[in-house]
Description:
Layout: H1 7-15, H2 20-39, H3 46-62, H4 67-79, H5 85-109, H6 117-122, H7 140-161, H8 163-168, H9 173-194, H10 199-213, H11 227-256
Amino acid sequence: VFFALSRIFIFYSTNYILSDIPYILFTSFTLFVASRYIEESSSSSAKEGFLVFFGLILSYFTRYIGIALFLALVIALLLVDKKTKFKKIIFVVGSFFLVFAIWNLLKFLIPSPHQNYHFKQLFLIDPYALYKGSLFAHPKYFIFRFIEGANYYADIIAQSLFFFLLNKWYFLKESLSLITLCLVLLGLWLKFRENKICLLNLYFLSYFFVIIFWPFKEGQRFIIPILPIVFFYFFIGLRKICSFFLRKINYFCFLSLF
């Protein structure tokens, strides 16, 4: 409900014809099916396997950031304690890379001036200043990019959650960004404690890690695909904080009786 009524979702879904909304649909479908596929103990889950493959392909070719979902699924399958996990990993990785290889072969046969353009720029210190060189030549910039990206998207997440408040009182930006990031991370940590191989958690981390290191910043657009998850973690963290203080209040109220 909060996501559907959020300004960022309404703005991008009504003013632009972009791939973000279809991407949310495809990844949501794939997350649902893949979660069942991970838990399925039978090796004969061909139907679920095909649906997972279909969802991964739709997600990836809608937006290349869909590779984050593929990575999260492989990690989840590696972590799960099932006898059939290696068969599933072989199927998922093999089928995905088969389509991936065919796609890249077609790109090779039909060359484009922008072929592999973004991938090459990913490891540049500054895509707009080529003279600065590669991240691998100056490893410290990996840390700088991580800090810069984390700070940038912490602000974006705060704007997504508190747009009207920040629009009126912009001086609250830094404090709200920090509070929002802490609550989201707290919610993520709490869900990891419940289930360490939850695909949703792994996808969020994988996606967030990719956009943090992506050299191009496009404002709120990159946050849209994970905004429902951000809302989820935020309210999980907020509920934990509220319950903690309520327990403290109840405790002191009880002591006051004596």
